[in-house]
Amino acid sequence: MIKNILSFIKNRSALSVGFLFSVSSLLFGSWVAVIPFVKTRLHFTDGSLGLSLLLSPLGAITGMLLSRIVFRKIPVGKWMSIGYIISCCIMILQVNSVNRPMLWTCLYFYGVFGFLNGVSSNATVNLMEKKYNRLMMSTCHGMYSLGGAVSALLASSFFALGISSGFHVEIISFFIIIIIIRNRKYLLAHTDIIHTKSSFKLPSLTILGISFICMVTFMAEGCVADWSALYFKEVLHAPKNIMSFGYAGFSIAMTIGRLNGDSFIAKVGGKKIVIVGSLMASVGFIMVSFAPAIVVAVAGYTLVGIGCSCIVPVLFSASANIPGVSTVEGFAMVTTGGLVGFLAGPSLIGLISEKSDLSKGFLLLVFLTITAASAGWANKFLGTTKNHLQDAGVPQEELLGI
Q1: The whole model's pTM is what?
Q2: What crossing angle do the helices spanning 294-308 and 205-234 adopt, rounded to 10°?
């Protein structure tokens, strides 16, 4: 892992794009930590908050529809250098919303830019993998998980120091924007137009299967993100300074798994990663649902993180290499389900908890992750190959950057 990380860091172009993955989770992790306070300030119930969160997937769907136009006209590097800064500004407004309409507007536009930013950064990683003849997707997603862990730890520190939720998000966003501006030349070097005019194609059943797995995995991530702090507060009655420990354990596990992921995927193969990872996540959610103590819940969230860690990189790499479709179309077809799951899943959990409680809501994820494992077993598109670069004859040593 250390050798892989060092070679990744030395590549400033790759590191600049990898940092953008961490930006997404730094912002979202900051939002996760303050949800309980936004809920109280704006007088939401679990159900009304869950319904409000549906605005982000609606925005993501809008972003999907716009992606074909945006990336046919704007070079991917130019979008990355601007889109993530806009997301920072939206998050500042979102956390500091003074009323529900303001929050709803921010949630919607955060979904729009979140989708477009995700397509731009993941498509760029796919292009860099081919350019440098090495795997990078899992490492970049490891940067995302690292950002989530850092955001959770920062939130705990800020709360301990008595710094308000709105101000701590402003501090994080300020430093993010400064770093993006300093790395702008590396981002602008990516001048690719990642979508060209093409006719619309309905996805095949195998592609829909991958989209379903992506939806379930993202739903698991979204539910841990949006509801873990509330679960610790309202069900386990945890003190304020450790409410983010569940998400921290999840994010740390995701980080370690993904930073080792390129090696695992090359050796084991994507299909086994998807099946075993989904089953591990289901066991983790069982532990969370029936947790008798905080430490068991943290262990459950950590196991979910380990299980989910390498699934998404496998699916994203597959979506970028679908024969006969552009990179943008591939990501759109496969990841739309994922983003909807990530953002709509918490809403569904909120509705269930409104009628029962959060521990019962997490049981739904047990069923869905087991179903995802079955879908991975039956999916022919994942196949038995290790990855698209190995198929092209690139030696494993070069795949791992060693």
Answers
A1: 0.75
A2: 160
